[in-house]
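Figure 2 data, in text form.
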Amino acid sequence: MILVLLLALGVVGQPATVGGDVLFELARPARAAALAGVDLALPSWVTNPGALGFREGWEIVSGYASPFFVGHFGHVALAGPGLALEAFLFYSGEIAPGLSFRAEGGAASLGLSLGALGLGVRARLLHLGQPQGALGAAMELGFLWRGSLRLGGVVKNVWSQSPFPGEPWPLDLSCALVLPLRLWGFTLYAGAAAQDLLTLPRYAGALALEAGGLALVASAGTTGLALGGSLAWASFRLEWAFLGHPSLPLGFRVSLALQWP
């Protein structure tokens, strides 16, 4: 049921596995979404709990997405050294007379660093409110190696309980490799990602350029093209992304983060 509804909304055009995993993919902040999975090998705690052990400060992130300009998705998260909490709400509006889709979810993550190796665990909870109530949960493990060549990955659904019988959340694996390069005062990240290798394999390459508080991101892969970026000033960071799919309308996301100290 959930997959049919999400197909009707076009949400499955995003890189995601079957069923409720799609909603957790939508909870990525804008810049992470534009990286198309390559952020698994970057210090992106939302994507990879293995990055939490390397965090030095705290941040609150709130975001909004309109998947292909159909439906509304809101997300808020708090992250600090070794700890992250997330929550989201998705509402489709009326898909057909008397039919709409609403879901709420959240996640709690813990992480630590052992030298250049970061390890993390995340517990996820999904509640489907409409068209019928259901509850699901899952656990995933993440790792991040921060060497001259960075490697990150997440093993999804190490344990899982799907909201619907017959729609399992299967064991899955996503990984990414990134090479950081320092050029003329800029930092360039070049990377590749392979997502959902055990269920619906997807592949992408991405480039991210950072110059002070400005960052620009571009990616291309089997799910389409994406362009995004971020602008940081004082304690704030604004992120945006445009997500293109070969056969679906353009998608848009925006996120705002507050960092301290």
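Caption note: The first strand starts at residue 58 and ends at 66.
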